Amino acid sequence: MLKIIIFRVILLIILPLLQAKKVQVIELTKWSLRDSDSVIAAQPIDVAKIPSGVYTELAKTSGDLLGPNNDVALRWIANKTWIYSTSFDMDELGHDSLVNLTFHGIDTVAKIWLNGNLLGETDNMFVRYSYVVGHLLQASPKHNVLEIEIISPLMEANARAKQLEEKGIGAPPSCPQSSGDVECHRNMLRKMQMSFGGDWNPAALSSGLWKPVTIEYYTVAVLREVDVAINRNDTHWTMDCRAFINTPDSESFYAQLVVYASDLFNEPFVVQQKKLSYTSPNMEFQIHIPKEKVKLWWPNGYGAQKLYPVSFNLKSYRSEDGPSLSSRTDSQKLLNIGFRTIDLVEDEDEIGRTFYFRVNGHPIFMKGVNFVPAHTLPELSADAEALQHLLKSAQEANMNMIRVWGGGLYESDTFYSLADSYGLLVWQDMAFTKATYPVTDELMNSMRIEAAQNAQRLAHHASLAMIVTNNEIELYLVKNRSDFGSEAMRLEDEYKLLFRGILAPELNIISRNDFKPRPGPMVSTPSMGIVESGKELAKDPQSPHCGDVHLYEDETPSQNAYPEARFISEFGFISLPMRSSWLRVLGQNATEDKLAALIRQRQHHPRGFIPLFRQIAYELPFNLQNWEENIDEFIYFSQVSQAMATKKAVELFRSRRDNYLTMGALIWQLNDVWVAPSWSSIDFYGNYKLVHVWAKEFLASPSIIALYHELSNHINITITREDFREDRDTIFYNLFINTYLWNDIYPKTAIARAIGLGSNALDKLNIPLESVLYEKTTKEEIFLEILLKDQQENIVAHNYFYPVPIKNIVGLRNPELQLEVLRSDCGTGKPYVNSFSLRITVKYPALFIFLELNNPNYVEMRHSFSMNGFTQTVPRQNVQLEIDTDSECIELNPDDISVKTMNQYMV
């Protein structure tokens, strides 16, 4: 009898928990769109899905924003106010239910109306807005009507700028530096700053619902985010957790939380019932895990990226006795957690301060790239396939860090999850760039929320290395101080108030008092580093002695142009996308004149083509006067010069990593938002430029670096190994230096040397150039092939060294190149595998062989060559071509592949 009573008591206690329901979240996906005066869209346009934007919805009727000249021709769209409308039925509600209408991203200034009631106004596209609406909903059979009136971003930015001017307040700069047709006053709106245009991108002032709109049915509260900070001691790892909970209630409530992670602990971890204050409804707790149960997460190239799925399950209710039957009390978050430590070492040394990241106690040279949004329209920027291609490409190019640039977005959850999986540490700029920003109370409050919400969302990711509150603003203020005159002091004080006084402290929401989950926040980039961030504005944010620098010397890509900086977080060189990408923009009516006009129209650099011409002329024999008549040549020379300049810069920076002199190089930029002259290594359609193909080799580990020291007439060779081994084992290699003449396919002399390299070590050789010359030849007549072989005679690293600029070499001959296309068996049916072997034969050295698929039926299919832009010093070379389609079995012949070599322009 006693057992029965006990059982009934237990049943009465747990039954409400078993009967509780999950928070119900319903996405509103069926919308219509019209302009506010119904001039353009007399009949509302059906919106197929959310995310959505006005440019995207009008593309079928008005044209693609990225079509020829449409960035200007469609500007009228940004001058109008647009209205999104939908209707929905109310779900059945319990007596204790609450209803939220949550907008995860509205672009940008908007008024929200529900059943004719003004629900609220938005002015920040980076903020989640949530409203309690249960009292405004109409029960079935009545429909609930929701309208979002999105104000013209152009009109709003100009109106706000005018209001400031009337008060005698300036917020420079008014307009972007660009030769393109761009728009002004971007700093008036909390909107993606690149939307107003720039020196490489179009003005594309988007409007829309760029993230989901949801209805949330719940009883008391919703679990929004969970921040998991990782720490360790000698015996255990600690998951230091903060659960961020939202409630509209004005009274305290109860909550309990259960954590499931079967790979980490055998039994669920239970946070017992707690009474939470509605003013700060967060839960903090720690989970300790024995070290032997955990495998480390490492950046790409240093180890595996082990991620553990962890489920956080919250119950929230008003009564101490637990939830009532059928109440919607349960909400959850599923996170993938990587265990790693990361810190930024800024130790004083004889030069200034070091600036390097240390992961799991191991110093790491950061080889990486800057990332801009995957599309110029925010609603299209989170495409999973595009993001996977871009981040996978970065990983395969041996990169280990990606910087999210401050002129773009806080990227999607998909982006950061991919970065976790691929081992790409994320340097995250906040969305402020190279401008002053008004510091009104309303704006500052919005920016506080922006900082907190995005920090909470991103903090659990193993890939998140550091947050920086702005891009280049401190440098902008310092460089233009004299131009600002009497306004300089006010602008600097407002800068310090916003970024040091408000935003940086707001990020403490993801900090800890007793340990640092990650470095930072750092206030600006470039900067004197975190150590100096709390002080006055730096006299020289570009100081090479500490912190990070941005390098803009695109006119002279010489190793002499670069200071011995501690960390280069932005540098790069310009090139043009391949011909097939340009033709894809132009469509079926493409002509050479239209192609030339499009290239000219999309060159937005303030100095036009001058930097690119100089970049090419530094190394290559290109006629700069008539590029319109030789567009293919212009494209080829631009990509070769970009690849050569980037390779030389990266090699120089990597050669300086001993004693932590230089410990990072982030190339500007990985990707592009349209087909245009730019610094990208992957074009808008996902095609690799030569620099990205080369990066797979010049960022590899181990790697050979060969740099010419003109004053001493020596070759400085560095062999670098960048990895991690617990035992710091030494691997033995053989280094071979082969001397070639430009008129002979076979090497004339060879030098060999045995070396040993430990984990994360490098070795240096200093070789007189005259020692590798052949007989009475000059340096203009020779080049070197440098190989690194392991003990099994496998080539593990490879490089070429050219003693003089390519335009000055002597003896180059027609290589008599022949191309043969061989295909592998594509299978007997779907899915087909389209893989080709391109057999290239030459009789003499062929310099910078450039391959391009030109068959119009296949150029729009994503494809890649295993090698491109390479120098061939063997009679026969095989190159793999992979075409990413499985719907048909493709046949190719040699005419479908365009081939260029530098030889044809010099012989």
Give the helix/strand class. Answer: alpha+beta
What is the strand content?
25-35%
Biggest pleated sheet: 7 strands, parallel
Name the overall outline. globular
Total number of helical segments? Answer: 15
Radius of gyration: 30 Å
Q: What value does the average pLDDT take?
A: 93
- Which consecutive residue ranges, at least 5 long each, have pLDDT under 50? 1-18
**Number of DSSP E strands:** 45
Sheet with the most strands: spatial strand order: 28-27-26-25-31-30-29
**Proportion of residues in helical segments:** 10-25%
N-C termini distance: 104 Å
Oligomer: single chain
Can you describe this structure?
The chain is α+β, with helices and mostly antiparallel strands and about 900 residues long. It contains 15 helices and 45 strands. It is globular and about 95 Å long.
